[in-house]
Each structure stands twice: as C-alpha cells, then as structure tokens.
Amino acid sequence: MSLPSRSALRRLIKFGYLTAPPPRLSYPAPSKWRPAICRNNHIEYIFRTPRRPLHTATDNPQETPQRPEAPESISLKSDPNLDPTTLPLSCPGCGAFSQWISPDEAGFYTISRKAVKEYIREASSKLGEEGSIAGDIQAEDSKSSVENDTPAGIQPDEELATDPEDTPPPDEIKVPFCDRCHNLLNHGVASPIPYPPIQYIEDILAESPYKHNHVYHIVDAADFPMSLIPNISRILDLAKMRTQNRRAKHVHYGGGGRKPALSFIITRSDLLGSQKEFVDHLMNYILNVMREALGPKGDKVRLGNVHMVSAHRGWWTKEIKDKIWEEGGGVWMVGKTNVGKSSLLQVVFPKSPRAIPPSLPRGTGKFDLKGKPEETDQPIPGELKEIDPSEEPDEADILLPPPQQVRQYPVFPIISSRPGTTASPIRLPFGRKRGEVIDLPGLARAGLDDFVKDDHKPSLIMKKRLKPERMTIKPKQSLILGGGLVRITPLTEDLIVLAAPFVPIQPHITSTEKAIAMQAQEREVPNVPNLAKEDVAQSIKSAGVFEITNDVTKTYGKPSTASPDQKKKKALEKLPFRVLSTDILIEGCGWVELVVQVRVKDLEAGVVPKVEVFTPQGKFAGSRLPMCAYSFLLEKQQRAARHMGKRPVRSVRRSKGRGS
C-alpha cells in the first residue's frame, strides 16, 4: 500500500497509533470516520460515534502504543506469524471495514480461513520488505523538531508520499472477501445490516473530493416506478432538472460550487422484453409513467436524462461507460436496495482509457487519446478540489472512506439477490486522477421480504423475463399470490377480469371466501406453497381500491381472426364495448396486468371497474398506466402460428425454370 500524502500524514500523526478495534457500524447514529496509523505501515479509517473514544493516549510520547490482543475465540496461538492487522483496509465485496472482533457484523474475517491466512502471510512479507512507517517517523523526529517547527516526522521540502498510481498495486496478492460476503456468494445467507437514511447519502456527497459530480439514480424496471425517489433533487441538493424551455440552464451553481448533475437509469430492462429494439419502443411509455410519478412538476421537465439499460444483455451500457470516462469526476450510484447498482457498476466502470469524441477539440481540459491530461490552463472536468488548510474539515467529521488502489481491473462489489449487500461506500478510481465510481449502500426499500419465510425470500426477486398465462377471475373469485401473501379481489359485479401476473411467486384463482381463509392461514391448498410467516395473518389489511380506467381497446380490442377488410369496416370507435386495463404493482416483486371488457352503455351510466388489494400492513402495492406486456406475448404467438400454418412459397426463378 502506498504511503499517505504529506498533508494527510501531518494530520494523522497527532492522533497517535490505533489501540482499539473498530466498533460496530450502525445507522442512523452520527457516523464519523477517524483515520489512524498502525505500526505495520497500514492505514485504517475506523467508524465511530462522537461519544465513543477513539484511542487511549500514552504518557510517554516516545512509547509506541500496542494493539490489544485478539480475543480467545480467535486465538492465533496455532500460528503466531499471522498478524490480523495486515488485513485489507475494507472488504472489497461489501465495503465494510475489516475487523476480527464481532462475527455477526459485516467485515468480519476468520483468521483460520485458508484464503485469509494466505493473504496475511503474503501481505506481511511484502510489508516487511517495504519497511515500517512508524520507524521512519521516529527516525526523523529529532532532526525535524530541531531544525524548524514542522510537526514531528515531517520534512518541509520532502514529499513523503508518491502518487498512488506510481506505486504498482500488489496484483499477485488476491484480496479475500469477508465472511459475510463469502456466505452470500457460496450459501446465499448473511446477517442483515441496517439501512442508511437519505441524509447519510447527502452528507457523503457534501464531502466529495471532486468539483464535478454526477449522481445516477438507479431504478428497478420490475416494479417501476415504485423504487423511484421523486424528491431526490431537492433532498440531495442536486442540479434542477431542465425544463422544456430551450433557454434552460445546463449547469447550476449554489452553496459555493457547482451542483451535481442527475441522471435516471432504469436497470434490468431485459425483464420487459426479449429484444433491445422492442424495449427502446417503450421509452415513451416509461417517460409518461415517470412524469406521473414525479408529481405536478413532472409535465414541465424535459427528462432527457433517462436511460434504460440491461447489465445482463449489455444494452446501452457502452454509452454510459463512455459518458463516465468523458465527464470524469465523482460518479455516485444512488438507489434503493436490490435495484442492480453493483451489477451496473461492473459493466459501466471504465476499465481502460478511451478516445475523446471528435467533437471535443484538444486543449479543452479533456484527456488525449493516450488517456493523459493535456497541457492546458482550462480545468479538467474531474479535477480535485483545492482545499484551503484553514477550512479543512477535522478528521472526526470525515464520512467518506479512502478510495481503493488505482487498478485497471479492480475487485468489484459482489452481486447478491439479498437486500443490503453493500454495507459501506466502495470507491473505485479510474484513469490518472480522472475520477472514480462510488457504489453507495442501498436505501431502505419497502417490500414483502420481512413477511416471507427465509427459505422463500430469494423467490421474490424477478431474475428473468416471465411469460405468464392469462388467468380468468370470475365474479365472487379472487387472485391469490404466494399462497395468501397478496390478494386481489374485484369489486364490480357481473364483470370478468383477466389477470396476467408478471411476478415470480405462484398465482392461484379461488373463491373469495376461500381466499380470505388462505390469507388468515386457516386453509391450505395442495401444490400452492404459503410463503408468509406464521404471524402475518394478523397484519393483513387493505392496501387500497384501484380503478381500471385506462382504455386499451386499440391493443386488445382487435378481432384476431378477422380479415383485413373486416378490420377496416369495423372501426374501433364503433365497437359496442371498451377494453380497460391497469397494472397493479407489488413492490420489489413485479406487477399484475388486469384487463376487463365493459359495454359502452355501462360506462356512460357511470360503471367503473374496481379491484381491492390486501397485503401485509396494507402496504407494498400501487398502480400505474398499463404497459400491455401480455400483448407482446400474444403477437409473438400469433406470428409463430401464422408461420407454422403457411405453406412455403415457391421461388419465382424455380417456377419459371420448370415452366420452360
């Protein structure tokens, strides 16, 4: 690991050496990152609260404080050469700071693990070759204190640290994951961690070391737009979204500097369609739904910063990767849990230098084709802030942890279907001081995860594109999802509702009386597993009454067996019925498409089809404009049926040859 910079070292020495293990990380208690220097040339930033002491000072300043011995539970008597202080600064999988005290906390390393022992041995031998930073400081203490008033160990004209990129990282040493990440990858189980509040993200953004920052709000396509934060620009003090006025400003300033820009990324868009061209056609629909979710101001904004990507298929990821490299600076991944932030980071992270676009002339502060900054007086987009020593914050107020080593192919955060995988910010720098991508912990996302048995929690996540069968809900019947977890009951009599459940949990149609008994856990149905816990029946409440009022007659009202001439004669406006639809959203799970056919006379008489949804605590449900996703499956089936029923067309050239 490279030595700290001169200014950072001057600030760190006055605090002495670390003598206390990292305490438990907790939210939303006031969090403080505190730096300290260890005896083995290893720098650590530990998490603490203001009331908890960092270390105990010694009476003799020349005496080197010792790190406390490890507990008996992790005794190192079997191999005294294993020094746990040589563990990595933080786990590269979840970002939690390394510790060997609390097995139930994130970042815990079992010293007896084979991968951990190999890393400690290799890191200890490498640090032994490079020397100890503590010995160097003590050797220079007397000389510098006599010559000038510079703090002990600091030479005025000597740069104690080199560029982090000038020191090659130890690529041959494989950094192990902590026990929690190890269990997530191999067994799919892990202890839960608390979720940070939105104010925590705001405080971290305020400590960005870059002048130019860009926030990417990650939104999940499975339950879009329930994972959207409508007021994210106001809460995080970001640049306002551009209005439809052509003179709207591109860049906004406030609070003493340039405000971070905002972009929306809708991940896992491959769940909406099998082809990229088809998903691109849904952009107008996505924008309409987003405008409605943003509230009254949604119709006034331009929404040119919305992207639909798929990390699994690689749709539109190259464009975002080039944009990250071109802009540089701080790139922040903000979003709720289980929306695909870590998966997207692995795809859009600029692993190698890229050429600047032809439209950008040289000498504008951009990077040249070799990835090096040009000699120009113009500011580089991702340049670091110039910190005034008088205004420099105290180490006790630091929230943002230090970045990782600059590598072309760094160790990326792990990907898991369990919520709350990332425990602490993970900083991945790219280029020579070009910028860095920061994966932030996921915000709390309301969902059914707390009311489902542990064995069935992974089944709530939609992992692939679904092809459901349309189910018929007759009068006095209800649709049950997850064996009683969610119930959808039509309220309008004498109407048949067609339901297409785009959810990964099993649906079931039964009478409303039996459906109520299933939600009360008084009745079980064979081959229909009940995912809910035992005490969930007491919390079942109504999540609201939703009206089915969106006209989709143009999509579902066409007679599929009619000839083209008959379609022209029978215009849609003259049909005696209307086809209405809506999408019922299940937060963190998916949606259910409801379609009903109503006579025009009944609509004129004021008949409005309605359904009532019952969920735990009356939450986790909503509605949106219908996507008509089932119509895509119908068109595909019709094309396949026509292809199978048609006779092969004989070639014109062959027919002429036979006739002659």
From TrEMBL:
Stretches with biased composition (Acidic residues): 156-169
GO cellular component terms given for this protein: mitochondrion
Region (Disordered): 49-82, 127-172, 359-384, 641-660
Domain of life, source organism: Eukaryota
Signal peptide location: none
Basic and acidic residues: bias regions: 365-375
Family annotation (InterPro entries): Mito_lipid_metab_GTPase, P-loop_NTPase
Gene3D superfamilies in UniProt: P-loop containing nucleotide triphosphate hydrolases (3.40.50.300)
SUPFAM superfamilies membership: P-loop containing nucleoside triphosphate hydrolases
Name of the molecule in the record: G domain-containing protein
Lineage: Eukaryota, Fungi, Dikarya, Ascomycota, Pezizomycotina
